[in-house]
Amino acid sequence: MRHPLDGITVVALEQAVAAPLATRHLADLGARVIKIERPGAGDFARGYDQTVHGQSSYFVWLNRGKESLELNIKNTADRALLATLINKADVFVHNLVPGAVERLGLDARTLRAAQPELVHCAISGYGPDGPYRSKKAYDLLVQCETGLVSSTGTADAPAKAGVSIADIATGMYAYSGILAALYDREHTGRGASLHVAMIDALGEWMSQPAYFSRYGGQPPRRTGARHPSISPYGPHRTGAGTVFFGVQNEREWAVLCRDVLLLPELVEDPRFATNNNRVAHNDELTSIIERAFAELDAEQVIERFDRAGIANARLRTPAEFTRHPQLAARHRWRPVDTPGGVVEALLPPVVADAWEPVMGAVPALGAHNDAIRAELASKVESD
To answer: For this structure, is 25 an active site residue?
Structure first.
């Protein structure tokens, strides 16, 4: 089967989350991704946990479909081999610590001077210049610096997001930037020098609360699982269990009052006449809603919501998500080989009618050492 990135070679000097996420998506589209790892240790994300057949859940998630090559990039012979790989590649991706790439001669200016068609993508915490240029960055720290932690949690305590949201945002912008650069190269013949900073990527996602705070004169309220500026929106107790739902406009508010709560008089109640009124009186409104649900269980309330066309959800655990009936009905899981055994992996979010994602195996450390070295040796002999 044809894949969109067939024939594209990516060399990735990467570790952790952001860069590996970007290159894994490229591999799913058919690119050959050669992952450079430290001899004997590899990507340090391999050691984050041992929960998936003895392997790291992070590594299994982020590295399917790649080839693993161990290189000591401080060793002269291995550096020469890396240079040969990059010279034959279409894309080079790295997320080395600040300053390291320049010392190694792997920066965009150096590489693209000899190879102008190369797409060079650098990923950093805070960007290539400015006072934070040399500052190390991890996901939680960037969540702090962009205001996400201060906007998340409860009134009593801020909280981080439950997933590596700064890394994920950065990886997705790197991925889309690389695709755009490859598309542009088809027209110009020239590659591109890309830089994706975590603070910029997550900063984009934080734009709404940033606007709200800067121009509204007050920070967003931390409201736990509720919405700080829309009401009703979030968890509500029933007689047995909790349901989550949201109302987005006045039409839905009227439907909620009439068909779900069975309290049509609330539509005209001045305390709840507009969204701003409902936010101001959210505690009162929550009490009214929960009293209306007190004689029902969560399933009965969800049935009312569904009949009325009001958006709602059950609170599921991550493990329960893997058994979600909607994903099962749509056949969204595929078996993927790992060194410890087969796992069920979720298909990429974009569904296309022209190709299936590759969904290749997760490599053991150095699994492709011999094959890649032999391939390069044979090419040198033929040249």
So the answer is: no
